Amino acid sequence: MSESYRLIRLERHGAVAEIVLNNPGSLNAMQPLFFAELARAFAAVTDDESVSVVLIWAEGRVFSVGLDLKEAMGLIPELGASTSTAARNRVLYRIIRDFQACFTAVRRCPKPVIAAIHGMCLGGGLDLASACDIRLAAADAMLAIQETKMAMVADLGTLQRIGRLCGSGFVREMAFTGNMIGAQRAQAVGLVNEVFADRVALMEAARRMAGTIAANSSLAVQGVKQVLDHADEHSEEDGLEYVAQWNTNFFLSRDLNEALQAFRDKREPRFSGD
Known about the structure:
Radius of gyration: 20 Å
Shape: globular
Strand order of the largest sheet: 1-2-3-4-5-7-10
Number of strands: 10
Order of helices and strands: EEEHEHHEEHEEHHHEHEHHHH
Strand content: 15-25%
Structural class: alpha/beta
Largest sheet: 7 strands, mixed
């Protein structure tokens, strides 16, 4: 199945949905329409029970150069006789919150989300990647919290999310300097999981990983994601109570019976997600 948008593509290959940044002529710059389309795509894959895993990648030479600032600024009304600074600020606040909500939808997707990054991944591109569960990169990937060099504070999620991945000191270095870091250093600090020689190898590995995840019980995989997300925001004891409650409700599933039967039969299990 393939669904057409203007700035992205949504494709489904079995249990794997692929969301493709598809504006290579503008280096996948994130225009206001992009955020609306991304939110719509994630609503679709979240509601589609046949989708178990989401893979995000990009057409063209780069993953994304981030927000199209000119297009975004066009949403803010000019300051004229009938427009107060407060009114303009209310519009800007709403724009920021709406854009944030699109990447929060990625973060809260109940299915695992993998980002396959090649070339530049700047500003909003890193906001998007940091909202994913797993990040894989080609050796040519360059990542940056670029907003600082534009006299801005990154506001779409990177500063709130990547500290859990690679530690406060590294995040502060990236954010204070705005400098690009290469894929190897990103892997060394935990910002990306693995680096591959080129884009072809990256996509092969990303699709292989997505397929491996999709072959597991979707009930269990989504349960693991819920438990991990809960653990990120709660104490260890709260997390233990949460997973005990989760397994009390879902442990005795048809997929568990299928896994045990497949083990006895020496075959691959055929999970149904219930």
